[in-house]
Amino acid sequence: MSVERVLLTNDDGIDAAGLRALYDALDADYDVVAVAPTEDRSSAGRTLSEDVGIADHELGYAVDGTPVDCVVAGLDALIPDADVVVAGCNEGANLGAYTLGRSGTVSAAVEAAFFDVPAVATSMYVPGGEDWWKRELRSAEFANATRATRYLVAEATASGAFDRVDYLNVNAPIADADEGGEGDAPAPMRVTSPSPWYGMEAAHDGNGRVRFSDPIWGKMNAGDVPDPIGTDRRAVVDGEVSVSPLSVPHAAEPDAGLDELAAAYGRATENVR
Predict the structure, then answer these.
(1) So what family is this one in (predicted)?
(2) Model pTM?
């Protein structure tokens, strides 16, 4: 398929540096229209609103809603002729199977798949301590993410990859940008699968509060992740662009062994009122 029009969204908000970096990278080749949240809606998952407010923006449309709101509004009302949806670039990685459902960036790509529109979700790993998210990022630091996304929008669509997968989850290492604003040499690309490792922790303080933590970020900073080569998290820690080819969730499994249970249900409950 050929790509002419790109719907660009994110979960960091329409004025985020990562969205602007992707817009500038794609705008040279495509008609790019942003349909993105008015403000940060990170970790919104696939939350859908009943209705949303929409305002014109220099890049397209600012939506007072979630990333999924943006995709539904964009593909069904505002930009119905979009050929591809690109979500990102998220300021922070979306790595591991357990993050996919809670990520607004990835959820936007999943929603596009239900419209049968190819999608690329792009995120960037930003190393640092607990306050890494406060870092002011320059456009050149997104170079690995923008190069990879631009390449995949062109080549993955032309190769027919989206005949076999629904969306691509891309995670790129941050680029070392010099004072001239130019990114470093391109990071290599690796096809990956989401890491199955799960390490979320919960601590009850005894006073009516439970605090959550995810120790993987400290392990990533130390380069000591529990993931083998071929997983998304290992690729990013090794300085590679991770590309996970994925399909929409909730595929039915007809061989789960439930047929006999279903047939016996009536007998098991016949005396239950």
Answers:
(1) Belongs to the SurE nucleotidase family.
(2) 0.91
In sequence order, the β-bridge partners of residue 85 are 7, 119
pLDDT tens digit string along 35-58? 999 998 988 988 999 999 999 999
42 annotated as belonging to a binding site for a ligand: yes
Residues of the chain with pLDDT under 70: 129-134, 178-184, 271-273
Instruction: Report the 3 state secondary structure along 163-175.
Output: HCCCEEEEEEECC
Of the candidates 58, 55, 6, 12, the one whose C-alpha atom is nearest the C-alpha of residue 27 is 6
How far apart (Å, rounded) are the C-alpha atoms in residues 189 and 187?
7
In the chain, what are the domains?
A: 5-197+227-269 (3.40.1210.10)
**171 labelled binding-site residue:** no
Residue 90 is assigned to a ligand binding site:
yes
Q: Locate 114 and state its tokens.
A: 């239900």
Question: For residue 129, with 0-12 CB atoms within 10 Å meaning exposed, 13-18 middle and 19 or more buried, which class applies?
Answer: exposed
Q: What is the dihedral of CA 146, 151, 152, 158, to 10 degrees?
A: 150
pLDDT at residue number 156: 97
Q: Supply the mean pLDDT for the chain.
A: 91
Distance CA 144, CA 190 (A): 13
